[in-house]
From TrEMBL:
<protein>
    <recommendedName>
        <fullName>Glutaminase</fullName>
        <ecNumber>3.5.1.2</ecNumber>
    </recommendedName>
</protein>
<feature type="binding site">
    <location>
        <position position="181"/>
    </location>
    <ligand>
        <name>substrate</name>
    </ligand>
</feature>
<comment type="subunit">
    <text>Homotetramer.</text>
</comment>
<feature type="binding site">
    <location>
        <position position="137"/>
    </location>
    <ligand>
        <name>substrate</name>
    </ligand>
</feature>
<dbReference type="GO" id="GO:0006543">
    <property type="term" value="P:L-glutamine catabolic process"/>
</dbReference>
<dbReference type="GO" id="GO:0006537">
    <property type="term" value="P:glutamate biosynthetic process"/>
</dbReference>
<feature type="binding site">
    <location>
        <position position="188"/>
    </location>
    <ligand>
        <name>substrate</name>
    </ligand>
</feature>
<feature type="binding site">
    <location>
        <position position="282"/>
    </location>
    <ligand>
        <name>substrate</name>
    </ligand>
</feature>
<dbReference type="Pfam" id="PF04960">
    <property type="entry name" value="Glutaminase"/>
</dbReference>
<keyword id="KW-0378">Hydrolase</keyword>
<feature type="binding site">
    <location>
        <position position="264"/>
    </location>
    <ligand>
        <name>substrate</name>
    </ligand>
</feature>
<dbReference type="InterPro" id="IPR015868">
    <property type="entry name" value="Glutaminase"/>
</dbReference>
<comment type="similarity">
    <text>Belongs to the glutaminase family.</text>
</comment>
<keyword id="KW-0007">Acetylation</keyword>
<dbReference type="InterPro" id="IPR012338">
    <property type="entry name" value="Beta-lactam/transpept-like"/>
</dbReference>
<feature type="binding site">
    <location>
        <position position="212"/>
    </location>
    <ligand>
        <name>substrate</name>
    </ligand>
</feature>
<dbReference type="GO" id="GO:0004359">
    <property type="term" value="F:glutaminase activity"/>
</dbReference>
Length: 328
């Protein structure tokens, strides 16, 4: 067999597999999944440590899938906006990757799962102010500190990035959520000050906290999130394929970190149940990536003990199973 023929056969197999997935994806399938997981909402709890989040009704439930050819599938409250919270930590890291050398980032923040709650201080003290990874609060605060140093207007820049990736020019910060977090920022401030004591924080703590809380307060829908995060399924390129947000190597790094640390101390169980890189936020959103194929966003505000959306995880588990997609 000539190498060319071999390549053609492989390509055919790949394309027919791709078609199978797309064929089995439908709005009805997504709706069915939402109907199946809805009873789980009652077992979770809406985050209340940020007062502005505690008023969100627990019965919202939405899902959106964006495949790399730009097609969208949706069900439930897919177009309702919510606070993306820690999902923004992925975007801050991507932004930092465009402004810093690889070694500059990873000398200040680790690449390992923490096995601890996302806002824990214990490990940070023991490990001399170097956070385990960029997706726990300490790590994201270091990344925001780095952005503060290199960007003249970090909040504006982030808005430009998400608006362009999600193809939605009116995405905004929810100022009420950002203010509420700032008024209840004792723990995050303690984390930042502890890192400053260890020499791993350069800028004014209050300024960086404000940037961090604004990023967390980004208000986006599942549809917008699915579009926005498609670059992680696409080797770092946006949906048009024309704009490289980050390099394929940087994309690999982010997906690996999402796999091991995107769901906090629930990351192991999530890998076991779903097997895809993902990032959650205490607003109840989760973004998951099927590399080379699609990005998925779910939202259900009631959380499990690790701070991950309870029905959201179950919905991803079902979808991954139905599409026969897992990295394992
Ligand atoms: N897990 C999260 O979504 C936490 C983010 C939240 N803004 C906090 O700092 O506590």
């Amino acid at each position: 067999m000539t190498p060319l023929l071999f390549l053609a056969i492989i390509l055919r197999i790949h394309l027919s597999l791709w078609k199978t997935v797309v064929a089995s994806l439908s709005n009805q399938l997504l709706q069915q999944i939402l109907d199946d997981v809805r009873p789980l909402i009652a077992q979770g709890r809406v985050a209340d440590y940020i007062p502005a989040l505690s008023t969100v009704a627990p019965d919202y439930l939405g899902i959106a899938v964006c495949t790399l050819d730009g097609q969208l599938w949706q069900a439930g409250d897919a177009d309702e906006r919510f606070s993306i919270q820690s999902i923004s930590k992925v975007l801050s890291l991507a932004l930092a990757q465009t402004r810093y050398q690889e070694s500059e980032i990873w000398q200040r923040v680790g690449k390992d799962p923490s096995g601890q709650p996302f806002n824990s201080l214990v490990q940070l003290e023991l490990e001399k102010g170097k956070p385990r990874n960029p997706f726990i609060n300490a790590g994201a605060l270091v990344i925001c500190d780095m952005l503060e140093t290199r960007l003249t207007a970090p909040r504006q820049r982030m808005l430009e990035v998400v608006r362009s990736l999600a193809q939605q020019p009116d995405i905004q910060y929810d100022r009420q959520v950002a203010r509420s977090e700032f008024e209840h920022s004792a723990r995050n401030a303690a984390i930042a000050w502890l890192m400053k004591a260890f020499g791993n924080f350069d800028n004014d703590v209050a300024t960086v906290l404000q940037t961090y809380f604004h990023y967390c307060s980004l208000s986006m829908s599942c549809t917008e999130l699915a579009r926005c995060f498609a670059f992680l399924a696409n080797q770092g390129r946006d949906l048009s394929g024309e704009l490289a947000i980050i390099t394929p190597r940087q994309t690999k790094h982010i997906n690996a970190l999402m796999m091991t640390s995107g769901m906090y101390d629930g990351a192991g169980e999530f890998a076991w149940r779903v097997g895809l890189p993902a990032k959650s936020g205490v607003g109840g959103g989760i973004v998951a990536i099927v590399p080379g194929e699609m990005s998925i966003a779910v939202w259900s505000p009631a959380l499990d003990a690790s701070g991950n959306s309870l029905a959201g995880v179950a919905a991803l588990e079902m979808l991954a199973e139905k599409l026969n997609r897992s990295l394992f």
